Amino acid sequence: MSSQSINAETVTTELDNILEMENVSVAYAGNYAVKNVSFNVARNAITSIIGPSGCGKSTLLRCLNRMNDFILDVSIEGKIRFEGQDIYAREVDAVEVRHHMGMVFQKPNPFPKSIFKNVAWGPTVNRYQGSITELVERSLKQASLWDEVKDRLNDSALGLSGGQQQRLCIARALAMEPNVLLMDEPCSALDPISTAHIEDLMFDLKSRYTIVIVTHNMQQASRVSDYTAFMEMGNLIEFDESERLFTRPSNQRTEDYVSGRFG
Amino acid sequence: MSRARHLPSITNGQVRWHESLIQGGLGFCALISIITTATIIFILTRESVGFFQVIPVKDFLFGTSWVPMFEPSSFGVLPLLWGTLVITVGAALICIPIGLASAIYLSEYASAKQRSIIKPVLELLAGIPTVVYGYFALTFVTPALQYLFPDIQVFNALSGSIVVGIMVLPMVATLSDNALRAVPDSLRQGAYALGATSYEVTTQVVVPAGLSGIIASFLLAISRAIGETMAVTLAAGATPNLSFTFLESIQTMTAYIVQVSMGDTPAGGVAYQTMFAVAGLLFVITLLLNVIATFILKRYREVYQ
Questions:
Q1: CA B290 vs CA B112, B120, B178, B221: distances in Å
Q2: The ABC transmembrane type-1 domain covers which part of the protein (chain B) (predicted)?
Q3: Topology (CATH level 3) of domain A3-258
Q4: Which of A67, A95, A158 is nearest residue B189 as measured by Cβ atoms?
């Protein structure tokens, strides 16, 4: 699916929310990590999920592209809808769901292959019809990595710095031309300069993709995101426009957290 | 007021002599295998030199007839080399695909419960004495093959290859399984997140990342197949044979060495020295295989973090 057709869909659909979560609960072996969470993700915006370690924010994110399917003894209740369709419905193919949702992980995890192959692999296994070379160049440019790697596309991706590897992982996800980009603490293993680089990148990508980012860095959430969800102990405490959530939170617990009184 | 200052003691007053004793003991144990290897090479070389003073190297390496015991004798090693090659290649054709497939199943598809049953069974298979595999070939595999090939001999190369292949299968499966499980999970997750299927993730990301360990398991299995003696002698017999049908009896290099060392060949004669020449050749082949393996691993493996 090209980006043009995504924009076309935006016009034809009346949904403003690309993802909707309704009473989502997730339990590992009977222990609830996420409890009854409901909020929506706005199209072409950055939504961040913040909260202290172990609050269930990563678990929730991994439900959105069904990455929790691999964990034994996990049970997911409630509804998660992508473009109005329940992604946990019986007839849904999890592999297809993941085609539409790119994911960037906490620790850069490039494949032990060349830079080119890292980006080309996803489209290749999904039988991309156009020119792979052009797609790789476009994706690397979108991830603002092209200028640094264009002369060594055939070198191993593991020779790149941590920040470059993470941008390569973003390029790899973008090459699938997803509708949503899920980022699970993408900067937690990076230095401040690489972090700034990736935050700039997220602004650039916002016009074409919907981004959901999990972070425990509140400054980052307030800098980059339009909407913020604050979670604690598996519960959604507050969901609001970031500006309001960080300046005039309506819940005392949110205020305590964003003002640094705990967490 | 001045406080008395005691210097902290940093001397012990005694030499820790047992430390150097332990170091020496451990070093000696490590030395034993080196001394053994050196001695083997020395004896192989000395006896082989005696052999090659009588028989030209060219006649040994390229001769097509191996009749060391009877007159007129002939010392062409090719029939023995061929026997070893047939067994090894046949065994590799069986153990590599099936072993790798088992490893992939165990590591990527099997549930924890299935694993807990299959893995011990595989390891049990690896512990069965090789002579039992020889019996298995003679009393089960060959009779079964007779349905397919009615004119098959009682001792035949095909049954030998099959049974050696089955014998080294657990080695390939367990070692490759270990190699696959050592591949970090973050690579699998990255691949799944790109909308790949289990099969694509396994064949295109996990197996290439674990390739060095997988190839190492292949090579170990192959060198074990080359060196296998008992099962092969029981299954394939002891007839030096340059035949291409696989349904006849052959003799491998190791089976020949057993034949000579068990028999009443007088020590010191040319017939006796053949044993060392054949063993020397076997040594050179396995050494070359190791060198090639090291080269391949350095050149082609995908290093992961």
A1: 35, 29, 21, 12
A2: 81-293
A3: Rossmann fold (3.40.50)
A4: A67
